Amino acid sequence: MTQDIETSRLTVNGLNAYLARPAGGSESGMLLLPMVTGIGEQVREWAEAIAATGVTALVWDPFHGPSSDDTSIADLLAKMPGLDDAVALDEQTQLLDHLLGELGCAKAGVIGWCLGGRFALILGGRDHRVANVVAYHPTVPGETPPNHTMDAIAHTGLIKAPVMMMYPAADELVPRSRFDELQSALQGRVTGPSLIHVYPDAEHGFANKTRHGTPVNAEAFALSWPQVLDFIG
Q1: What 3-state class would DSSP assign to 69?
Q2: Cα–Cα–Cα angle for 70, 71, 77, rounded to 5 degrees
């Protein structure tokens, strides 16, 4: 049964964020780390779907304003090299603090897509307050960009919480060798279960509805999303 929700734009320590939560709040929360779209329509829809299950959703704004609502994907992609790992993780930690503080959540997890999927794994390894980690097609490329100063694979191995990771086998940005390293890091942990999905022929970013014109992407999302909502709950 879905719940009535309330949504708002807010500022946390000068950081833009989007909040969707059950009316009156909840004890459980999720920090949402978007893909290149920023806080665009798709990510807001996911936040609202999570809130409708009874979980407070707070969305990080990677680009401090621009999103797919008002900026082309090409222009947003051009901003990605300017994302500094240390700065981004500090911002995400401040939002996690807000979930566990002013928003009244007793526990909170993190979910990310693409670039946000990578950050979700890193944050989960850095901050053991995180209750669970969901990484949709995390962007851990074969050649490490200069601004990727934190080792996502090493941090993945440090996560103590339950983890759910989705990998599309036709991912054009993340080679199978990188997925194998992430999988080994997860399965080598001594604490925290790992749920790992592999979707043959699905493409990078398959969760985004703009990619659902390709049936295999739509099918992968339709199979994974209900399980993600159950995992979060």
Answers
A1: coil
A2: 150
